[in-house]
What we know:
Elements: H1 8-25, H2 30-37, H3 41-49, H4 57-67, H5 71-78
Helix pairs in contact: 1-3, 2-3, 2-4
Amino acid sequence: MVRTPLTPEERERGERLGRLLREARGPRSMAEVAAEAGVSAETLRKIETGRAPTPAFFTVAALGAALGLSMDELAARCAPVGV
């Protein structure tokens, strides 16, 4: 399967998501948050650093729940600037 290249907007949205998760994680370790969400620490690291700018919906939902962030809040804070 060949993936189409991501647009600059998709990359920016992924970077915003990563920053938001990193900030919400605060002093908690990646391993702790990842385990609570049921994902690998490597997956969380890739999302936080922007290397995985389009994570699966259920991954984002699980991370949001582990960090106390609603899907509405995640969507609003990761939306393009000016929208």
